[in-house]
Protein backbone atom coordinates (compact mmCIF):
# COMPACT_ATOMS: atom_id res chain seq x y z
CA UNK A 1 0.00 0.00 0.00
CA UNK A 2 1.27 3.49 -0.93
CA UNK A 3 1.62 6.09 1.82
CA UNK A 4 1.23 8.90 -0.72
CA UNK A 5 -2.27 10.32 -0.13
CA UNK A 6 -2.48 11.51 -3.75
CA UNK A 7 -1.67 8.10 -5.25
CA UNK A 8 -5.32 6.98 -5.35
CA UNK A 9 -6.20 10.17 -7.26
CA UNK A 10 -3.40 9.47 -9.76
CA UNK A 11 -4.69 5.93 -10.30
CA UNK A 12 -8.18 7.22 -10.96
CA UNK A 13 -6.87 9.93 -13.28
CA UNK A 14 -4.96 7.28 -15.26
CA UNK A 15 -8.12 5.24 -15.57
CA UNK A 16 -10.04 8.27 -16.82
CA UNK A 17 -7.36 8.87 -19.47
CA UNK A 18 -7.70 5.22 -20.61
CA UNK A 19 -11.49 5.56 -20.76
CA UNK A 20 -11.35 8.83 -22.73
CA UNK A 21 -12.92 10.67 -19.80
CA UNK A 22 -10.18 13.10 -18.73
CA UNK A 23 -11.39 16.69 -18.55
CA UNK A 24 -9.39 19.86 -18.90
CA UNK A 25 -10.00 23.53 -18.33
CA UNK A 26 -9.42 25.62 -21.47
CA UNK A 27 -9.59 29.37 -20.81
CA UNK A 28 -11.03 31.43 -23.65
CA UNK A 29 -9.07 34.45 -24.71
CA UNK A 30 -11.01 37.69 -25.11
CA UNK A 31 -10.06 37.60 -28.81
CA UNK A 32 -11.23 33.96 -29.18
CA UNK A 33 -11.92 33.58 -32.91
CA UNK A 34 -14.11 30.45 -32.74
CA UNK A 35 -17.81 30.57 -33.61
CA UNK A 36 -19.53 29.73 -30.32
CA UNK A 37 -21.99 26.86 -30.64
CA UNK A 38 -21.18 25.47 -27.20
CA UNK A 39 -22.41 28.05 -24.72
CA UNK A 40 -25.83 28.37 -23.10
CA UNK A 41 -26.17 31.98 -24.24
CA UNK A 42 -29.31 30.99 -26.16
CA UNK A 43 -30.44 34.48 -27.06
CA UNK A 44 -26.99 36.03 -27.46
CA UNK A 45 -27.68 38.42 -24.58
CA UNK A 46 -24.51 37.85 -22.52
CA UNK A 47 -22.68 40.41 -24.67
CA UNK A 48 -25.69 42.55 -25.62
CA UNK A 49 -24.79 46.21 -24.99
CA UNK A 50 -28.00 46.86 -23.00
CA UNK A 51 -27.28 43.92 -20.69
CA UNK A 52 -23.61 44.86 -20.23
CA UNK A 53 -24.51 48.48 -19.53
CA UNK A 54 -27.08 47.42 -16.93
CA UNK A 55 -24.43 45.28 -15.21
CA UNK A 56 -22.03 48.23 -15.16
CA UNK A 57 -24.72 50.62 -13.88
CA UNK A 58 -25.66 48.19 -11.08
CA UNK A 59 -22.00 47.91 -10.09
CA UNK A 60 -21.72 51.71 -10.06
CA UNK A 61 -24.84 52.15 -7.97
CA UNK A 62 -24.65 49.16 -5.61
CA UNK A 63 -21.05 47.97 -5.72
CA UNK A 64 -19.35 44.89 -7.12
CA UNK A 65 -20.56 42.52 -4.42
CA UNK A 66 -23.80 42.18 -2.49
CA UNK A 67 -21.97 42.42 0.90
CA UNK A 68 -23.95 39.75 2.73
CA UNK A 69 -26.56 37.04 2.67
CA UNK A 70 -30.09 37.89 1.54
CA UNK A 71 -31.43 38.04 5.10
CA UNK A 72 -28.67 40.35 6.37
CA UNK A 73 -27.44 43.04 3.95
CA UNK A 74 -27.50 41.25 0.58
CA UNK A 75 -31.06 42.09 -0.53
CA UNK A 76 -31.37 45.27 -2.60
CA UNK A 77 -34.38 46.84 -4.27
CA UNK A 78 -32.80 45.54 -7.50
CA UNK A 79 -33.16 41.94 -6.23
CA UNK A 80 -36.78 42.65 -5.32
CA UNK A 81 -37.49 44.06 -8.80
CA UNK A 82 -35.94 41.05 -10.46
CA UNK A 83 -38.04 38.71 -8.32
CA UNK A 84 -41.23 40.58 -9.20
CA UNK A 85 -40.42 40.79 -12.91
CA UNK A 86 -39.40 37.13 -13.20
CA UNK A 87 -42.52 35.97 -11.37
CA UNK A 88 -44.77 38.15 -13.52
CA UNK A 89 -43.01 36.94 -16.69
CA UNK A 90 -43.70 33.25 -16.04
CA UNK A 91 -47.10 33.89 -14.41
CA UNK A 92 -46.11 32.89 -10.86
CA UNK A 93 -47.31 34.63 -7.71
CA UNK A 94 -43.84 35.30 -6.25
CA UNK A 95 -40.13 34.80 -6.81
CA UNK A 96 -36.93 34.32 -4.87
CA UNK A 97 -33.47 34.91 -6.34
CA UNK A 98 -30.56 32.63 -5.44
CA UNK A 99 -26.92 33.01 -6.41
CA UNK A 100 -27.10 30.23 -9.02
CA UNK A 101 -29.57 27.88 -10.65
CA UNK A 102 -27.77 25.00 -8.94
CA UNK A 103 -28.37 26.60 -5.54
CA UNK A 104 -32.00 27.39 -6.41
CA UNK A 105 -32.60 23.67 -7.02
CA UNK A 106 -30.66 22.60 -3.91
CA UNK A 107 -32.46 25.16 -1.76
CA UNK A 108 -35.98 24.56 -3.03
CA UNK A 109 -35.97 20.76 -3.23
CA UNK A 110 -34.17 20.29 0.09
CA UNK A 111 -36.55 22.74 1.80
CA UNK A 112 -39.62 21.04 0.34
CA UNK A 113 -38.35 17.51 1.07
CA UNK A 114 -37.67 15.69 4.31
CA UNK A 115 -38.12 12.30 5.93
CA UNK A 116 -41.92 12.57 5.61
CA UNK A 117 -41.79 13.45 1.90
CA UNK A 118 -41.35 11.03 -1.00
CA UNK A 119 -39.38 12.54 -3.89
CA UNK A 120 -39.92 11.11 -7.38
CA UNK A 121 -37.22 12.10 -9.89
CA UNK A 122 -36.79 11.56 -13.66
CA UNK A 123 -33.70 9.47 -14.48
CA UNK A 124 -32.38 12.17 -16.84
CA UNK A 125 -32.68 15.11 -14.44
CA UNK A 126 -29.82 17.59 -14.17
CA UNK A 127 -27.05 16.96 -11.62
CA UNK A 128 -28.30 19.85 -9.47
CA UNK A 129 -31.71 18.19 -9.17
CA UNK A 130 -30.09 14.84 -8.38
CA UNK A 131 -27.92 16.43 -5.70
CA UNK A 132 -30.95 18.27 -4.32
CA UNK A 133 -32.82 14.96 -3.99
CA UNK A 134 -29.88 13.54 -2.04
CA UNK A 135 -29.78 16.60 0.23
CA UNK A 136 -33.50 16.50 0.92
CA UNK A 137 -33.30 13.58 3.40
CA UNK A 138 -36.30 12.14 1.57
CA UNK A 139 -36.72 8.66 0.21
CA UNK A 140 -36.06 9.13 -3.52
CA UNK A 141 -37.58 7.02 -6.29
CA UNK A 142 -35.89 7.49 -9.67
CA UNK A 143 -38.27 6.71 -12.53
CA UNK A 144 -37.50 6.06 -16.20
CA UNK A 145 -37.19 9.07 -18.45
CA UNK A 146 -40.59 10.73 -19.07
CA UNK A 147 -42.47 7.80 -17.49
CA UNK A 148 -45.64 9.41 -16.10
CA UNK A 149 -47.12 5.96 -15.31
CA UNK A 150 -44.13 5.17 -13.08
CA UNK A 151 -44.52 8.51 -11.31
CA UNK A 152 -48.17 7.72 -10.64
CA UNK A 153 -47.29 4.22 -9.38
CA UNK A 154 -44.65 5.60 -7.00
CA UNK A 155 -47.05 8.21 -5.63
CA UNK A 156 -49.83 5.62 -5.23
CA UNK A 157 -47.57 3.19 -3.35
CA UNK A 158 -45.97 5.76 -1.04
CA UNK A 159 -46.09 5.49 2.73
CA UNK A 160 -44.96 9.10 3.31
CA UNK A 161 -47.75 11.66 3.91
CA UNK A 162 -46.27 14.13 1.38
CA UNK A 163 -44.68 13.90 -2.05
CA UNK A 164 -42.67 15.93 -4.52
CA UNK A 165 -42.16 15.16 -8.21
CA UNK A 166 -39.06 16.77 -9.72
CA UNK A 167 -38.21 17.15 -13.40
CA UNK A 168 -36.29 19.27 -15.89
CA UNK A 169 -38.76 20.79 -18.38
CA UNK A 170 -36.24 20.68 -21.25
CA UNK A 171 -33.68 17.99 -20.47
CA UNK A 172 -30.22 19.44 -20.52
CA UNK A 173 -28.42 16.87 -22.61
CA UNK A 174 -31.00 15.51 -25.09
CA UNK A 175 -32.99 18.74 -25.31
CA UNK A 176 -36.34 16.90 -25.15
CA UNK A 177 -39.43 17.99 -23.23
CA UNK A 178 -40.91 16.60 -20.00
CA UNK A 179 -44.56 15.45 -20.13
CA UNK A 180 -45.62 18.39 -17.95
CA UNK A 181 -49.39 18.16 -18.47
CA UNK A 182 -49.39 14.47 -17.47
CA UNK A 183 -47.12 15.10 -14.48
CA UNK A 184 -49.27 18.03 -13.29
CA UNK A 185 -52.43 15.91 -13.53
CA UNK A 186 -50.69 13.10 -11.63
CA UNK A 187 -49.48 15.34 -8.78
CA UNK A 188 -52.99 16.82 -8.54
CA UNK A 189 -54.49 13.35 -8.12
CA UNK A 190 -52.01 12.50 -5.36
CA UNK A 191 -51.83 15.82 -3.45
CA UNK A 192 -48.18 16.26 -4.37
CA UNK A 193 -46.09 19.19 -5.58
CA UNK A 194 -44.34 19.36 -8.97
CA UNK A 195 -40.93 21.07 -9.16
CA UNK A 196 -39.95 21.95 -12.73
CA UNK A 197 -36.45 23.11 -13.63
CA UNK A 198 -36.91 25.52 -16.54
CA UNK A 199 -33.18 26.23 -16.98
CA UNK A 200 -33.21 25.40 -20.71
CA UNK A 201 -36.78 26.53 -21.40
CA UNK A 202 -36.83 30.07 -20.03
CA UNK A 203 -36.37 32.48 -22.93
CA UNK A 204 -36.77 29.79 -25.57
CA UNK A 205 -39.89 27.67 -25.06
CA UNK A 206 -43.47 28.94 -25.13
CA UNK A 207 -45.02 32.29 -25.93
CA UNK A 208 -42.25 34.92 -25.80
CA UNK A 209 -39.97 32.43 -24.03
CA UNK A 210 -42.16 32.21 -20.91
CA UNK A 211 -41.16 28.57 -20.52
CA UNK A 212 -42.63 25.11 -20.83
CA UNK A 213 -44.76 25.39 -17.68
CA UNK A 214 -46.60 28.40 -19.14
CA UNK A 215 -46.81 26.65 -22.52
CA UNK A 216 -48.49 23.68 -20.82
CA UNK A 217 -51.12 26.01 -19.30
CA UNK A 218 -49.72 25.55 -15.78
CA UNK A 219 -48.61 29.13 -15.04
CA UNK A 220 -49.70 30.17 -11.57
CA UNK A 221 -50.72 26.63 -10.54
CA UNK A 222 -50.00 26.57 -6.77
CA UNK A 223 -48.90 22.93 -7.02
CA UNK A 224 -46.18 23.80 -9.55
CA UNK A 225 -42.82 25.21 -8.45
CA UNK A 226 -40.59 26.62 -11.19
CA UNK A 227 -36.83 26.92 -10.87
CA UNK A 228 -34.75 28.85 -13.39
CA UNK A 229 -31.19 29.90 -14.04
CA UNK A 230 -30.30 33.45 -15.05
CA UNK A 231 -27.13 32.17 -16.73
CA UNK A 232 -28.50 30.79 -20.00
CA UNK A 233 -31.09 32.77 -21.98
CA UNK A 234 -30.72 35.80 -19.71
CA UNK A 235 -26.96 35.89 -20.29
CA UNK A 236 -26.16 36.69 -16.65
CA UNK A 237 -25.59 34.58 -13.54
CA UNK A 238 -27.83 33.39 -10.70
CA UNK A 239 -31.03 31.45 -10.26
CA UNK A 240 -34.56 31.81 -8.96
CA UNK A 241 -37.57 29.92 -7.66
CA UNK A 242 -40.95 31.14 -8.95
CA UNK A 243 -43.99 29.83 -7.13
CA UNK A 244 -46.93 30.39 -4.80
CA UNK A 245 -46.33 33.18 -2.21
CA UNK A 246 -46.68 30.90 0.84
CA UNK A 247 -44.21 28.47 -0.66
CA UNK A 248 -41.72 31.28 -1.32
CA UNK A 249 -42.14 32.44 2.31
CA UNK A 250 -41.34 28.86 3.38
CA UNK A 251 -38.11 29.03 1.35
CA UNK A 252 -37.13 32.37 2.93
CA UNK A 253 -37.45 30.70 6.34
CA UNK A 254 -35.89 27.33 5.52
CA UNK A 255 -33.91 27.11 2.25
CA UNK A 256 -30.34 26.77 3.42
CA UNK A 257 -28.75 27.86 0.12
CA UNK A 258 -30.80 31.06 0.39
CA UNK A 259 -30.08 31.73 4.07
CA UNK A 260 -26.42 30.75 4.30
CA UNK A 261 -25.10 32.05 0.98
CA UNK A 262 -23.96 35.53 -0.01
CA UNK A 263 -26.64 37.16 -2.16
CA UNK A 264 -26.29 37.35 -5.93
CA UNK A 265 -23.98 40.25 -6.88
CA UNK A 266 -25.76 43.44 -8.05
CA UNK A 267 -24.14 43.48 -11.54
CA UNK A 268 -25.58 40.01 -12.20
CA UNK A 269 -29.00 41.13 -10.93
CA UNK A 270 -28.92 44.26 -13.10
CA UNK A 271 -27.85 42.24 -16.16
CA UNK A 272 -30.62 39.66 -15.66
CA UNK A 273 -33.23 42.40 -15.25
CA UNK A 274 -32.09 44.12 -18.45
CA UNK A 275 -32.03 40.80 -20.35
CA UNK A 276 -35.57 40.04 -19.18
CA UNK A 277 -36.70 43.45 -20.43
CA UNK A 278 -35.05 42.79 -23.81
CA UNK A 279 -36.80 39.43 -24.01
CA UNK A 280 -40.17 41.00 -23.15
CA UNK A 281 -39.66 43.67 -25.82
CA UNK A 282 -38.36 41.21 -28.42
CA UNK A 283 -40.30 37.94 -28.10
CA UNK A 284 -39.10 36.98 -31.58
CA UNK A 285 -35.73 36.08 -29.99
CA UNK A 286 -37.30 32.92 -28.57
CA UNK A 287 -38.81 32.03 -31.94
CA UNK A 288 -35.50 32.58 -33.69
CA UNK A 289 -33.59 30.29 -31.30
CA UNK A 290 -36.13 27.52 -31.91
CA UNK A 291 -36.04 28.08 -35.68
CA UNK A 292 -32.25 27.87 -35.70
CA UNK A 293 -32.35 24.64 -33.66
CA UNK A 294 -34.88 23.18 -36.13
CA UNK A 295 -32.66 24.22 -39.06
CA UNK A 296 -29.58 22.51 -37.57
CA UNK A 297 -31.60 19.41 -36.70
CA UNK A 298 -32.91 19.07 -40.26
CA UNK A 299 -29.34 19.45 -41.57
CA UNK A 300 -28.13 16.77 -39.12
CA UNK A 301 -30.92 14.40 -40.17
CA UNK A 302 -29.99 14.93 -43.82
CA UNK A 303 -26.46 13.80 -42.90
CA UNK A 304 -27.81 10.71 -41.12
CA UNK A 305 -26.77 11.92 -37.68
CA UNK A 306 -28.60 10.87 -34.51
CA UNK A 307 -30.45 13.95 -33.30
CA UNK A 308 -33.78 14.21 -31.51
CA UNK A 309 -36.27 16.84 -32.58
CA UNK A 310 -35.29 19.68 -30.22
CA UNK A 311 -37.78 21.27 -27.83
CA UNK A 312 -35.55 24.29 -27.26
CA UNK A 313 -32.26 25.66 -28.55
CA UNK A 314 -29.89 22.70 -28.51
CA UNK A 315 -29.18 20.00 -31.09
CA UNK A 316 -27.57 17.04 -29.38
CA UNK A 317 -25.81 14.53 -31.64
CA UNK A 318 -25.22 11.12 -30.14
CA UNK A 319 -21.87 9.60 -31.11
CA UNK A 320 -21.46 6.87 -28.50
CA UNK A 321 -17.76 6.50 -27.78
CA UNK A 322 -16.30 9.33 -25.65
CA UNK A 323 -13.05 9.43 -27.65
CA UNK A 324 -14.98 9.84 -30.91
CA UNK A 325 -17.01 12.66 -29.34
CA UNK A 326 -13.82 14.45 -28.26
CA UNK A 327 -12.33 13.92 -31.74
CA UNK A 328 -15.45 15.37 -33.38
CA UNK A 329 -15.28 18.38 -31.09
CA UNK A 330 -11.59 18.90 -31.88
CA UNK A 331 -12.20 18.66 -35.63
CA UNK A 332 -14.89 21.35 -35.40
CA UNK A 333 -12.49 23.58 -33.44
CA UNK A 334 -9.83 23.11 -36.13
CA UNK A 335 -12.40 24.52 -38.56
CA UNK A 336 -13.25 27.51 -36.36
CA UNK A 337 -16.36 26.22 -34.60
CA UNK A 338 -16.68 25.46 -30.89
CA UNK A 339 -19.24 22.75 -30.09
CA UNK A 340 -20.00 21.19 -26.72
CA UNK A 341 -18.94 17.64 -25.82
CA UNK A 342 -20.74 15.51 -23.23
CA UNK A 343 -19.28 12.31 -21.81
CA UNK A 344 -20.02 10.18 -18.75
CA UNK A 345 -20.86 11.04 -16.01
CA UNK A 346 -22.75 13.90 -17.71
CA UNK A 347 -24.46 11.28 -19.93
CA UNK A 348 -24.94 7.50 -19.55
CA UNK A 349 -22.18 5.16 -20.74
CA UNK A 350 -22.20 4.68 -24.51
CA UNK A 351 -24.15 7.88 -25.17
CA UNK A 352 -21.34 10.43 -25.46
CA UNK A 353 -22.27 13.22 -27.79
CA UNK A 354 -21.55 16.66 -29.17
CA UNK A 355 -24.05 19.46 -28.71
CA UNK A 356 -24.66 22.53 -30.83
CA UNK A 357 -26.39 25.58 -29.39
CA UNK A 358 -28.60 27.31 -31.95
CA UNK A 359 -28.29 30.86 -30.62
CA UNK A 360 -30.97 33.35 -31.66
CA UNK A 361 -28.30 35.77 -32.91
CA UNK A 362 -26.62 33.40 -35.39
CA UNK A 363 -26.36 34.92 -38.88
CA UNK A 364 -26.95 32.94 -42.09
CA UNK A 365 -23.17 32.67 -42.46
CA UNK A 366 -22.93 31.30 -38.89
CA UNK A 367 -25.66 28.75 -39.66
CA UNK A 368 -23.79 27.66 -42.81
CA UNK A 369 -20.65 27.18 -40.70
CA UNK A 370 -22.70 25.20 -38.18
CA UNK A 371 -23.92 22.90 -40.97
CA UNK A 372 -20.30 22.47 -42.07
CA UNK A 373 -19.49 21.48 -38.47
CA UNK A 374 -22.24 18.87 -38.65
CA UNK A 375 -20.60 17.48 -41.81
CA UNK A 376 -17.28 17.27 -39.97
CA UNK A 377 -18.97 15.54 -37.03
CA UNK A 378 -20.52 13.01 -39.42
CA UNK A 379 -17.13 12.37 -41.02
CA UNK A 380 -15.26 12.05 -37.73
CA UNK A 381 -17.87 9.93 -35.99
CA UNK A 382 -17.89 7.58 -38.97
CA UNK A 383 -21.28 7.18 -40.53
CA UNK A 384 -24.86 6.85 -39.53
CA UNK A 385 -26.37 6.55 -36.10
CA UNK A 386 -29.75 6.01 -34.64
CA UNK A 387 -31.38 8.10 -31.95
CA UNK A 388 -31.55 6.13 -28.71
CA UNK A 389 -35.06 5.71 -27.37
C1 LIG B 1 -31.18 21.85 -16.11
C2 LIG B 1 -30.22 22.70 -15.35
N1 LIG B 1 -30.55 23.10 -14.11
C3 LIG B 1 -29.71 23.86 -13.37
C4 LIG B 1 -28.49 24.25 -13.88
C5 LIG B 1 -27.59 25.06 -13.00
O1 LIG B 1 -27.75 26.42 -13.24
P1 LIG B 1 -26.52 27.41 -12.87
O2 LIG B 1 -25.50 27.23 -13.92
O3 LIG B 1 -27.16 28.75 -12.84
O4 LIG B 1 -26.03 26.99 -11.54
C6 LIG B 1 -28.12 23.85 -15.17
C7 LIG B 1 -26.85 24.19 -15.81
O5 LIG B 1 -26.06 24.94 -15.59
C8 LIG B 1 -29.01 23.07 -15.92
O6 LIG B 1 -28.67 22.66 -17.14
Describe what you observe in this structure.
The protein is an alpha/beta fold and 389 residues long. It is built from 15 helices and eleven strands. It has helices spanning 7-18, 49-62, 70-74, 77-90, 101-112, 127-135, 148-156, 180-189, 212-215, 245-254, 256-259, 266-281, 284-302, 322-334, 364-381, and strands at residues 35-37, 94-98, 117-122, 139-143, 162-168, 193-197, 224-229, 239-243, 314-320, 337-342, 352-357. It has a seven-stranded mixed sheet, sandwiched between helices. A four-stranded mixed sheet has the order 1-10-11-9. Helix 7 (148-156) runs parallel beside helix 8 (180-189), helix 13 runs parallel beside helix 15 (364-381) and helix 14 (322-334) packs across helix 15. Mean pLDDT is 94; it is low at 383-389.
Query: What's the number of helices?
Result: 15
| Residue share in helix | 40-55%
Structural class: alpha/beta
Mean pLDDT: 94
Hetero groups in this structure are: pyridoxal-5'-phosphate
Approximate strand percentage? 15-25%
What kind of sheet is the major sheet? 7 strands, mixed
Number of strands: 11
Poorly predicted parts: 383-389
State the separation between the terminal residues, measured CA to CA.
45 Å
Order of helices and strands: HEHHHEHEHEHEHEHEEHHHHEHEEH
Q: Within the largest sheet, what's the order of strands?
A: 2-8-7-6-5-3-4
Assign an overall shape: globular
Radius of gyration: 21 Å
Q: What's the structural blueprint in terms of helices and strands?
A:
Elements: H1 7-18, E1 35-37, H2 49-62, H3 70-74, H4 77-90, E2 94-98, H5 101-112, E3 117-122, H6 127-135, E4 139-143, H7 148-156, E5 162-168, H8 180-189, E6 193-197, H9 212-215, E7 224-229, E8 239-243, H10 245-254, H11 256-259, H12 266-281, H13 284-302, E9 314-320, H14 322-334, E10 337-342, E11 352-357, H15 364-381
Parallel strand pairs: 1-10, 3-4, 3-5, 5-6, 6-7
Antiparallel strand pairs: 2-8, 7-8, 9-11, 10-11
Amino acid sequence: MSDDPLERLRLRARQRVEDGLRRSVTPRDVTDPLLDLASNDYLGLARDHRVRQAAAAAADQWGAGSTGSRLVTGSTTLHARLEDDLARFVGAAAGLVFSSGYLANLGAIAALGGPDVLVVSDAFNHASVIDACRLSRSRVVVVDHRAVDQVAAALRARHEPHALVVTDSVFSVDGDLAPLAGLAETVRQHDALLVVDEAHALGVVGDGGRGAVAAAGLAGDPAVVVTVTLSKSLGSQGGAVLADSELIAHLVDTARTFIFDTALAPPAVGAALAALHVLRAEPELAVRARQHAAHLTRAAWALGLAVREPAAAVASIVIGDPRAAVAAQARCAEHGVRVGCFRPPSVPDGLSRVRLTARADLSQDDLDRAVHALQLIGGTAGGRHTVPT
